[in-house]
């Protein structure tokens, strides 16, 4: 028996969208209040808004009027629009299908390491750049344990086996193993134990670097 849905289960109804906005506003109010070291009771005294109402606003349980938000903005010395900032920011997703991705020339390509970039988002609200790669090592690949770059890297082994160096330590990686490390230390596969080898490498670093 096949049941057909009359509504899009991923659609956002007006009520749900309003609830998301309330939560976003509440988080901003709480964030600015804590940033300035003001308690709920102190903010209540400054604004004339009851402690109970402030708690509802911060928890996203009520929809404050523009007059209330303006009062809060004045008390916290922030623009009224700052309460809507995170709600208005775009959120992106990149879907890369199996077999797709962009071949990238990185330092390791000199050693016949195949880099396939699985997705990329430019400027984003988090302030962090994240680059996921699918790296393939074959019989033609050379060992290359001296990669160095900024940021943090996470490796998840999918296939094959390699001995992976990070600084003074060597880690035997097998399918299912994960290695998480500072990428500014020398690192890379030191011994190709079982080929072909494939692993996901996720590199993250601040946008301003």
UniProtKB/TrEMBL annotation:
InterPro entries reported for this sequence: Cro/C1-type_HTH, Cupin_2, Lambda_DNA-bd_dom_sf, RmlC-like_jellyroll, RmlC_Cupin_sf, TransReg_Diox_bact_type
GO molecular function terms attached to this record: DNA binding; DNA-binding transcription factor activity
Gene3D superfamilies: Jelly Rolls (2.60.120.10), lambda repressor-like DNA-binding domains (1.10.260.40)
CDD domains: cupin_XRE_C, HTH_XRE
Alphabetical UniProt keywords: DNA-binding
Alphabetical list of PANTHER family matching this protein: BLL2473 PROTEIN, HTH-TYPE TRANSCRIPTIONAL REGULATOR
Record organism: Roseobacter litoralis (strain ATCC 49566 / DSM 6996 / JCM 21268 / NBRC 15278 / OCh 149)
Record protein name field: DNA-binding protein
Listed GO CC annotations: cytosol
Domain of life: Bacteria
Span of domain HTH cro/C1-type: 29-83
């Amino acid at each position: 028996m096949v049941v057909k849905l009359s509504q899009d289960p991923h659609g956002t109804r007006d009520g749900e969208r309003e609830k998301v906005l309330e939560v976003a506003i509440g988080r901003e109010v709480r964030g600015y209040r804590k940033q300035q070291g003001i308690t709920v009771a102190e903010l209540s005294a400054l604004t004339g808004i009851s402690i109970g109402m402030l708690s509802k606003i911060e928890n996203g349980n009520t929809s404050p009027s523009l007059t209330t938000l303006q009062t809060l903005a004045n008390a916290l010395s922030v623009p009224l629009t700052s309460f809507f900032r995170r709600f208005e920011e775009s959120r992106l997703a990149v879907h890369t299908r199996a077999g797709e991705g962009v071949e990238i020339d990185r330092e390791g390509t000199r050693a016949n390491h195949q880099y396939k970039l699985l997705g990329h988002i430019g400027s984003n609200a988090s302030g962090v750049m994240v680059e996921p790669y699918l790296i393939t090592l074959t019989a033609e690949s050379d060992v290359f344990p001296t990669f160095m770059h900024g940021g943090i890297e996470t490796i998840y082994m999918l296939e094959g086996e390699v001995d992976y160096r990070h600084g003074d330590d060597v880690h035997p990686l097998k399918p299912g193993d994960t290695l998480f490390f500072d990428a500014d230390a020398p690192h890379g596969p030191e011994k190709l134990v079982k080929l072909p080898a494939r692993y996901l490498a996720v590199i993250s670093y601040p946008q301003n670097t």
